[in-house]
Amino acid sequence: MHTSPSDDWAIPRDEAIPRLLEEHGRKLYGLSLRICGTPEEAEDLVQEVFLNAWRSWDQFEGRSTPFVWLYTIARHACQRMHRKKSGEPEHVDSLDELLPFGAPRLAVVPAEDDTVDERLARQDAAGQAIASLPIEFRMALVLKDIIGFSVDEVAEILGANPATVKTRLHRARLKVRKALESGLPQQELPPPAYSKQVCLDLLQAKQEALDRGVEMPNADNIICDRCNAVFATLDLTQDVCRSLASITALPASLRERLASWDE
């Protein structure tokens, strides 16, 4: 996404903050909705983030991009504002619970294009699955697969190492993938061609490819039909997550509140 600071951000705050709002206000509001749960709390969070950015713009030293800097402010604001609610999840299912090892029938991605209703149903299912994640897993997934930061940028924003981010991201993806399965046709496939460990190693390679935004190396002579079916649903999962970035609008009421940041 954004990999290095740019000289064109050496501008005063009355130019920089409106530009950040225009480029990332909607995405930041979408993140806030998925963390806070209600529009009112999300608006409060976004307002706090941009007010803090306005007040501290002169402290931005350009060691990271202004976007990473902005979301780092958001992370701190989330930590301050987020209060654990009753029933909020504390863990993510195990791999055995998230993957269809041994199941005779697996979900397959249809060859034909989705209908509007199918796309909306998948977005809704993905949104519910994301909401069911513990907050640290939710943040990693939203920042990487919805907003579009790199793993290293997510690590910088969250104050975690990249390996930890990947662990959270990979497990969160599998949770959303499982949620999308029920809306897909099921097909009986041959038994696994390899041991469970080989399948897990191939799954790790697939997840790493998704992290980098590249195609998994062609290994048709190695990957069995079952793994290919799982990988196709992972691709669908990432596509659905990306689509979530475009369905959230910045409320007009919030724009009005933010218009007074310099007062």
CA-to-CA gap between the ends? Answer: 33 Å
Radius of gyration (CA) equals: 20 Å
Low-pLDDT regions? 1-5
Estimate percent helicity.
55-70%
Sequence of secondary-structure elements: HHHHEHHHHEHHH
So how many helices?
11
Percent of sequence in beta strands: under 5%
- Overall shape: it is elongated
Q: Structural class of the secondary elements?
A: mainly alpha
Physical arrangement of strands within the biggest beta sheet: 1-2
- Number of separate structural domains: 2
DSSP strand tally: 2
Mean of pLDDT = 88
Question: Could you say what the CATH architecture of the largest domain is?
Answer: Orthogonal Bundle
Largest sheet: 2 strands, antiparallel
CATH superfamily of the largest domain: Winged helix-like DNA-binding domain superfamily/Winged helix DNA-binding domain
Assigned CATH class of the largest domain: Mainly Alpha
User: Could you please say which CATH topology of the largest domain applies here?
Assistant: Arc Repressor Mutant, subunit A
Features:
263 residues; Arc Repressor Mutant, subunit A; Rna Polymerase Sigma Factor, Chain: A; 11 helices; 2 domains; two-stranded antiparallel ribbon; single chain
Topology (SSEs and partners):
Elements: H1 13-36, H2 39-56, H3 66-81, H4 95-98, E1 105-107, H5 116-131, H6 135-147, H7 151-158, H8 162-181, E2 186-188, H9 196-212, H10 225-244, H11 252-258
Antiparallel strand pairs: 1-2
Helix pairs in contact: 1-2, 1-3, 1-6, 2-3, 3-7, 5-8, 5-10, 6-7, 6-8, 6-10, 7-8, 8-10, 9-10
Notes on the protein architecture:
This protein is an all-alpha fold. The chain has 11 helices and 2 strands. Mean pLDDT is 88; it is low at 1-5. It has helices at residues 13-36, 39-56, 66-81, 95-98, 116-131, 135-147, 151-158, 162-181, 196-212, 225-244, 252-258; strands at residues 105-107, 186-188. It folds into 2 domains: 7-87 and 248-258, RNA polymerase sigma factor, region 2, helix turn helix motif (Rna Polymerase Sigma Factor, Chain: A); 95-244, Orthogonal Bundle (Arc Repressor Mutant, subunit A). It has a two-stranded antiparallel ribbon. It starts with 12 loop residues before the first helix and ends in a 5-residue tail after the last helix. The chain is elongated and about 60 Å long.
